[in-house]
Amino acid sequence: MKRAWRLKAESDVQRVWQQGRAFAHPLVILRVRANGLEHSRVAFVAGTKIGNAVTRNRAKRRLREAVRPLFLKIPKGFDFVFIARGNITDAAFTDITQAVQDVLKRAKLL
User: Fold this and answer.
1) pTM (2 d.p.)
2) Which residues make Cβ contacts (< 8 Å) with residue 68, sequence separation at least 6?
3) pLDDT digits over 2-12, tens only?
4) Could you give the 3-state DSSP secondary structure of residue 11?
């Protein structure tokens, strides 16, 4: 992901977490909030329930790659936080891609 597309500041992630709308799937949770900018930003989160650092980083990499081809199709002006859920480690990549598409469609962003 390009640097401008990343949601890096903890305060920005917390703002999306607290004020954003949530859409859940068994593999991933999406939190969305309008940001008022001319571009969208995204963050990927995997908690310690997922596993050790290697497992969490792998889950975030897989989520990032599932979102990357869809990111330019998403309307501009939103902040996204994708949260990996516990069973994402056992899921096939096609299932993860389908889960990302499902939550984006439910959020009416795709």
Assistant:
1) 0.91
2) 1
3) 777 888 888 88
4) helix
Q: What residue segments make up the domains of the chain, in order of their start?
A: 3-106
Distance in angstroms (rounded) separating the CA atoms of residues 31 and 15? 10
CATH of 3-106 given 3.90.950.20, 3.30.230.10, 2.40.170.20, 3.40.91.80 = 3.30.230.10
Q: What's the rounded Cα separation, in Å, for the pair 20 and 107?
A: 11
Closest CA to 1 of 35, 38, 37, 43: 43
| % of residues, the chain, pLDDT over 70 | 99
The token pair at 55 is 């497992």
Are 7 and 80 in contact by the 8 Å Cβ rule? The answer is: yes
Tokens of residue 64, six digits = 């990032």
